[in-house]
Amino acid sequence: MNKKNNLKKKDYSQAIILAIDTSCDDTSVAILQNRRVLANIVSSQIELHKKWGGVVPSIARQAHRDNIERVYKEALKRARPKESDLDIVAVCYGPGLAIALEVGIDFAKTLSMKNNLKLVPVNHMEGHLLSPFLLNSKGNGQAKLVNNFFPALALLVSGNHSEIVFVKEIGDYEILGETLDDAAGEAFDKVARMLNLSYPGGPIITHLAKRADKSWRDVKKGRLERADKKPEQELAGFFGLPIPMYNSGDLNFSFSGLKTASLYKIAQLRKEYKLDKDWSYNFSREFINAISLSLQQKLKKAIKLKPEAKTIIIGGGVSNNCYILRDISLLARKNNLKFLKPDRAFRSDNAAMIAIAAYYQLEKFNNYLSGEKIKELDRMPNLKLS
Ligand code: KG4
Ligand code: ZN
Questions:
Q1: Residue 284 clears pLDDT 80, i.e. is over it
Q2: What is the arrangement of strands in the sheet containing 16-21, beginning at the earlier edge strand?
Q3: How far apart are CA 319 and CA 332, in angstroms?
Q4: What is the largest CA-CA distance in the chain?
Q5: What is the average pLDDT across 279-287?
Q6: How far apart are CA 33 and CA 231, in angstroms?
Q7: What SS3 class is residue 246?
Q8: Ligand 1 centroid from CA 182, angstroms
Q9: What angle do CA 135, 131, 202 make, to 5 degrees?
């Protein structure tokens, strides 16, 4: 038997974990030791999917197949261990695109069986949730002391998920609210398409919003007082975009109404103005505000529901948004809560977050697959956090 399989629970802190994520349109392999990221290689497929306006699963699968070996080798080269130095293999097995997940799972199975290594299956959303706990290669990071952050409320906002999770402690999750239709990132991507922008929409809309009028806040208030009969808090700004699910009373999200309102508003603005640039900067800023206010409203409810929470954690691709990040951090501060966000490199999909989730599964629960059990691992496209 390989000596690696003798690793006892107490040894996991020094274990070299190789993690893989192929859940969507990024092929990623990372290497982690004691929460320190030794390598995190992400091969993006954006250029391949761009012309289709979104991720095409069959194209994603082929690109993962074409790239995974190269990304794996690059990660080993960057982190400098040899294949024989690896202790653990971790892989994302859901949620995500079934045929894309399969590529990473097959690669992970082959690697762990060939080297007689334990395999840790990881939930992609747990990866996003724990991404703020990653440390850089020098051992620095926002969350050096893990103990004082829990219980916490996690706001997970990505291209396919929007949810608020009560985290009693790492590994103990309760979903308090989730989206009833589109995810926040998806709303960004779809509205970007309406604006004839490229994919993914989030970064481009953010870029446009930075060119909004400096006095955007004043304009917003003035117009609201004059023009709108609805109470101010239901509208996100002077274009009258609604704040999704503001008064729904629960902690769920829904972004399809905002999407439809955006569609009509854009059509109206295109009739009124010659050029999109005459209104699209302010519109983008207001669209972000609508999403942010919706997220804030639900978080406020969650804070009331779980007064024991000590921290707000944010994770997922939408956490790249500087306005949303700032709004949520302010909300945390106002409520005397700590605020944890992933470092820039770990906000969008990456395998380092899969590695950190595996690290805690081993550290806390000694959870892994070995031997014949590895062969049985199957992808779970609709996997939930619970
Ligand atoms: O977490 P992620 O990388 O992949 C999934 O698990 O889905 O999230 C991707 C999503 C995309 O919808 C993208 O438009 C959005 O994150 N996104 C942003 C920003 N950067 C990426 N949304 C808003 N603002 C951004 N700056
Ligand atoms: Zn993701």
A1: yes
A2: 36-44, 26-33, 16-21, 88-94, 118-123
A3: 15
A4: 76
A5: 94
A6: 52
A7: coil
A8: 13
A9: 125
Locus of tokens 């799972």: 105
Is the C-beta atom of 316 inside 6 A of ligand 1? Answer: yes
Q: In this predicted model, what pLDDT tens digit does every residue of 233-274 receive, in sequence order? A: 477 788 889 999 998 999 999 999 999 999 999 999 999 999
Distance of CA 197 to the CA centre of its chain: 22
pLDDT in tens, 318-344: 999 999 999 999 999 999 999 999 999
Instruction: Tell me which residue of 55, 62, 20, 57 sits closest to 41, measured CA to CA.
Output: 20
Q: Which regions of 143-288 does DSSP assign to beta strands (E)?
A: 152-157, 162-169, 172-178
The residue whose CA has the least distance to atom 19 of ligand 1 is 202
- Burial class, 275, CB count within 10 angstroms (exposed 0-12 / middle 13-18 / buried 19+): exposed
Tokens found for residue 51: 């012309």
DSSP state of 361: I
C-alpha–C-alpha distance, residues 301 and 369, integer Å: 39
What Rg value do the Cα atoms of the chain yield, rounded?
22
The pLDDT assigned to 145 comes to 73
CB 133 within 8 A of CB 126: no
Amino acid in position 283: F
CA dihedral over 121, 123, 126, 131, signed as positive or negative: positive
The residues pairing with 159 across neighbouring beta strands, listed in sequence order, are: none
Question: In the chain, count of helices (H) and strands (E)?
Answer: 12, 10
Helix (H) or strand (E) holding 258: helix 256-272
Cα(357) to centroid of ligand 1, in Å?
20
- Distance between Cα 124 and ligand 2 center (Å): 6
pTM: 0.93
Phi, psi of 129 (to 5 degrees): -60, -40
Q: From 124, 188, 319, 350, give the residue whose CB has the most ligand 1 atoms within 8 Å, as the site to mutate.
A: 188
